[in-house]
Amino acid sequence: NGDSVKLILLDNKSDKIEAANAVTKLITKDKVSAIIGALTSTNTMAITKIAEDARIPIVAPVATNPLVTKKRKFTSRVCFNDNFQGAVAANFAFNDLNLKTAVVITDVKNDYSIGISSVFKKKYKKLGGKILKVAKINQGDTDFKAMLSNIKSLKPQLIFIPFYSAEVALIAKQAKQLGINAKFLGTDGMAGDKVFFEVGQDAVEGFYGTNLYSPDAPKTTEASKMFDKKYRAKFKEAPHPFGVLSAEAYGVIINAMNKCKNPTNAICVNKNIRTTKNFKGVSGIISLDKNGDAVRSAVIEIIKNRKSIYLKTVNP
To answer: What is the pTM of this model?
Structure first.
């Protein structure tokens, strides 16, 4: 409403201790009225209690683990949670791709991977699919050949891989070397980093993935059209989903502040964040439910020619 907005950017170095330290500084020294972040589930879950105790609202861009907002009154998100994403993935695999047997690979050091694996398994089995094996990896692992050889012997139609770019790319390369013919289905973290394409190269061709946003999906708001145009002009590439959802978090916070007599009143800002309804943002139309979770669509993509190509939108 005419006030200036000061953005303070701190690097959590993708580490939960650094994230906690950063949020403590933002609250105690910088006296912020709201916080965007952290980006991912593990780091966001490391900061929610700190913000909760200080009664400062957090809006997470892409922290999809269901536990992020559980029993939290000051933590919200502009992404869907993995209860929705896991169900979307299972439905797509079973009904659209007609794949009836699957192996799930889970990163046991990653809250995001653990949560979405659990949801996928339950939904897939409920639909009539069969989980042949749950294989476990640790973030940072590089040699997956023994695990993949065992998976190959099971002859699954699908391998579900809900974790981040580097490990997925390495698994793709090693699976191709072993001659594994199963379909691969990942989630929003899969193609989030360029390393996925740089390391995976031809091995990731044909991989499917659920995602938070696709720049090729139909635009449903004027804000999404404007953002797409300005992003491409500035960065000379299509908008990155993480960038889009971070901008969305900012927009939801500003929209909430504009409804407060005093926009620095964190209690009022949080109340208005939590009651966001039909907000026409840069990723589309978004509403938040009573738990602070976004009610929004997911997209399905396929990797072709080292790019993520939009296939369809799935509404809640």
So the answer is: 0.87
